[in-house]
Amino acid sequence: MSPPRKPISIPRRPGRPNQDAADLRQHLLDVALARFVSDGIGNTSLRSIAKAAGVTPALVSYYFGNRDLLVGAIFEERLMPVFAELLSMLAGKNPDDLVRGFVEGMHRLVEYHPWLPVLWVREILNDGGALRELLLTHIAPKLPQMLAARFAEAQRAGHLNADLDPRLLMVSLIGLTLFPLAARPIWSRVFNASDIDNQQLQKHTLALLERGLENTHAP
Amino acid sequence: MSPPRKPISIPRRPGRPNQDAADLRQHLLDVALARFVSDGIGNTSLRSIAKAAGVTPALVSYYFGNRDLLVGAIFEERLMPVFAELLSMLAGKNPDDLVRGFVEGMHRLVEYHPWLPVLWVREILNDGGALRELLLTHIAPKLPQMLAARFAEAQRAGHLNADLDPRLLMVSLIGLTLFPLAARPIWSRVFNASDIDNQQLQKHTLALLERGLENTHAP
Amino acid sequence: MSPPRKPISIPRRPGRPNQDAADLRQHLLDVALARFVSDGIGNTSLRSIAKAAGVTPALVSYYFGNRDLLVGAIFEERLMPVFAELLSMLAGKNPDDLVRGFVEGMHRLVEYHPWLPVLWVREILNDGGALRELLLTHIAPKLPQMLAARFAEAQRAGHLNADLDPRLLMVSLIGLTLFPLAARPIWSRVFNASDIDNQQLQKHTLALLERGLENTHAP
Amino acid sequence: MSPPRKPISIPRRPGRPNQDAADLRQHLLDVALARFVSDGIGNTSLRSIAKAAGVTPALVSYYFGNRDLLVGAIFEERLMPVFAELLSMLAGKNPDDLVRGFVEGMHRLVEYHPWLPVLWVREILNDGGALRELLLTHIAPKLPQMLAARFAEAQRAGHLNADLDPRLLMVSLIGLTLFPLAARPIWSRVFNASDIDNQQLQKHTLALLERGLENTHAP
DNA sequence: TATGAATGAGTCTTCATTCAT
DNA sequence: CATGAATGAAGACTCATTCAT
Question: Closest chain B residue to C69 measured between Cα atoms?
């Protein structure tokens, strides 16, 4: 891998903690990710990342080559691992637990990577999203296709509402997990709903998924 | 006539059809909306709008004053009317038809205003979204609060799954309508699903909402 | 004279009093003069004049042809007449009264045309001043040369301090009249001297001119 | 090394001598001052300064941040030192020499900083002058107030024409030094007076100040 | 390894001016 | 007589990037 890998520690600017080059690279990625999430990738200048990281803009270019390569690095070193995690979470699940496993897994994931929903919505979901193409060409197909296939299988076995489309179910699952998590700031404000935590959201989601709207508990 | 007049008469941009000012204004709004939808508001320069409209950047300033006012105009003249439509669609519905009405209404709406889902996701859902504040302060609260209130009422009357949160149900509904519609390009590609049309999506969504995942049709 | 001279009164915008074209021209000149004085000619846009006059920018161009011609009109129709006044004030003065006449005349002039000192200092005195060239080629030479000549004559007759230069005396006179009048805002603030009115200034100036610094009243 | 580097090496603007950054900063200040003096601060674009300095406009922003900061730098690094000089020149003077000291000091000052009178007149004296506020809040009050106080003292001691106002005397002194020096181009042309040098001007001024107009030398 | 200096392209906005109406 | 529409040029400023050091 490219430029700064030697572990020689040269504490240049005393403001930043004494870390070696690899750490600085990670620091830059952290800062960049934070800015990307809060401002959007397209709206974030390298300058602002550099400033937030206590570093010159030239350094950011130096470490990552150029803007696109930085975005690529964020994708590969921050986003991909998260999807890998999700994949491994769902690997062993048997079909009946799959939906519950997905919902719980996603919630657990977001607990550790709170930036995921927003980044997903803004940069992947959207037409010009900076990460969409990367996702679609690198990893995306695998996970959702695998899940959809297993839904289809369950459906054929009569374990799943026959009126559902297995592929669309995959979409619905994201619309019921990542989407509400990304949208929290807005519904929290609209409904004055700071009392609702993620656990309640998860419970609501599972209730909706498992039994739909009808009050089937009642006899 | 005294003041200095160059006698050469140059007909203005012959490329654009001879339309009056009001039309041009609408044309500019159309173009701006299109660019906003495809690139994001924050990433769209007035210059690019002007170019796409076959007009100088100065003219865009001339018509709308400045960038923020243009965004405001888009909001008021393009987005607000759509929400008004939705509101009137749902006005007369009785509680039992409400969810179905919402899903069908949203689909019908998007049929006529295909840009709605994307714009919603990018500019309202997201943290720094250019339209979020406008929506939240102008119209947003009313519609979702009204619907959530009616859900709560239905729930008290025993007509609605007791484990759902009425406010989160509102969120879920959007996650199952606007979200999949906005995400169509992506799932269509991932699943090679150009065969799935909006009608199927609507059917799937209603099936999921009404009975959940379980295969309750089977005895 | 150029464009709008017909006395047909068409009250277009009801905001502005019902005045005919000639009056509108005068109105525009008034407004332009006011803006020129307060912002400087170079810093004043036709737009701002038009706005202040309740008129479209196009109208200003229409009436005066272009920016330079407007400045020319200000010079000819506002500044020239003032110098003519001064000239006539000093015409009949006999040599001994000349200095006193100049000081008093200038003060009287400024009483009626308070904008004179500022305009003079900014637009004539300065190197790139918009009116300097106009003044130098149109009128300037006459008045100061005439006065300087009469000072020289008085000096030859032994009526004037022999160590003075008659031409520089002309300069000094302006430095002791127009200059302090233009500078009033600044010295008034520096010295907290809102108590000093023009009459006191005039008295001080004459005292300085007539006897210099020394306390010659004392026997 | 990895990041993409175009191998073509283009030596930067060979026109300007190879000077280090500090020198370039000074050069830019020099050029800016010259433009400010000849065109007025408000009428001088960064673009024109950059062009005159053989530099891109972006570089001017790079060095000074923005327009106001550039003006501030001119004030602090060019104007303030001059006033400090004047102050130190007058520090030790005893009251009787004060006026003469002021006139001579100002002439000496202008000899080394020929731009001072014009800048003073245009940017401090004038109402919207860009440097006025800076001067008034940073330094102005001290010097003139000190001088006026000493004039008042001399007057009380009977050493100064009793009909003068000490504060206005301060104003008159500027009107008889900075003003004629700033106006030289104009009176030099009006009177065809290229023969009058600063020494003669100084002599004239002192003669006027010390004895006024009357020919008191004659018995 | 890291940066300061520098640039060219691009941002939005304002300006004076023109001309058909 | 007066203006709305339109433009091209210029305004200040920011940006990503490069390169010598």
Answer: B3
**Residue-level length of chain A:** 219
Touch between chain A and chain D: 3 or more Cβ pairs under 8 Å: yes
Q: What is the pLDDT of residues A33-81, one digit of tens each?
A: 999 998 889 889 999 999 999 999 999 999 999 999 999 999 999 999 9
Question: Given a cut of 80, is residue C13 above it in pLDDT?
Answer: no
B212 chain-A contacts, CB cut-off 8 A = 161, 208-212
* Helix intervals (H) in C1-141: 21-39, 46-53, 57-64, 67-74, 80-91, 98-112, 116-119, 132-138
Residue C136 is predicted with a pLDDT of 83
Share of chain B above pLDDT 90, in %: 53
Do residues C67 and C45 make contact, with C-beta atoms less than 8 angstroms apart? Answer: no
Residue pLDDT, tens place only, A86-110? 888 888 777 778 899 999 999 999 9
User: In the predicted model, is pLDDT for residue A17 greater than 60?
Assistant: no
User: Between the CA of D18 and the C1' of E3, what is the distance in angstroms?
Assistant: 19
Nearest to B1 among C1, C3, C66 (CB): C3
How confident is the model at residue B215, as a pLDDT?
64
Please report, rounded to whole angstroms, the spatial distance between the CA atom of protein residue B91 and the C1' atom of nucleotide F14.
Answer: 49
pTM: 0.85
C213 compared with C193, residue with greater pLDDT: C193
Counting Cβ atoms within 10 Å, is residue C10 exposed (0-12), middle (13-18) or buried (19+)? exposed
Q: Determine contact, residues B170/B151, Cβ cutoff 8 Å.
A: yes
Percent of chain A with pLDDT over 90: 54
Q: Identify which of A40, A136, A172 has the shortest CB distance to residue B189.
A: A136
Chain A nearest C-alpha distance from D62 (Å): 13
How close A10 gets to chain B, by Cα (Å)? 37
CB contact under 8 A, D161 and C193: no
Mean pLDDT along residues B100-117: 94
Tokens found for residue B101: 């009405």
A25 CA from E14 C1′ (Å)? 43
pLDDT tens sequence across A172-210: 999 999 999 999 999 998 899 999 999 999 999 999 998
Dump the DSSP string for chain A.
Answer: --S---------STTS----HHHHHHHHHHHHHHHHHHH-TTT--HHHHHHHHTS-HHHHHHHHSSHHHHHHHHIIIIIHHHHHHHHHHHHT--GGGHHHHHHHHHHHHHHH-TTHHHHIIIIIISTT-TTHHHHHHHTTTHHHHHHHHHHHHHHHTT-S-TTS-HHHHHHHHHHHTHHHHHHHHHHHHHTT-TT--HHHHHHHHHHHHHH-SS-TT--
Look up the protein residue whose alpha carbon has the minimum distance to the C1' of F19: D9
Look at D207 and C39 and tell me if their CB atoms are within 8 Å.
no
Mutate to test the interface with C, among D100, D171, D173, D176 (most CBs of C within 10 A): D171
Contact status, residue A167 vs residue B191, Cβ threshold 8 Å: yes
Chain A residues with CB within 8 Å of chain D CB: 1-3, 61-62, 64-66, 69
Contact A38 B145 (CB under 8 A): no
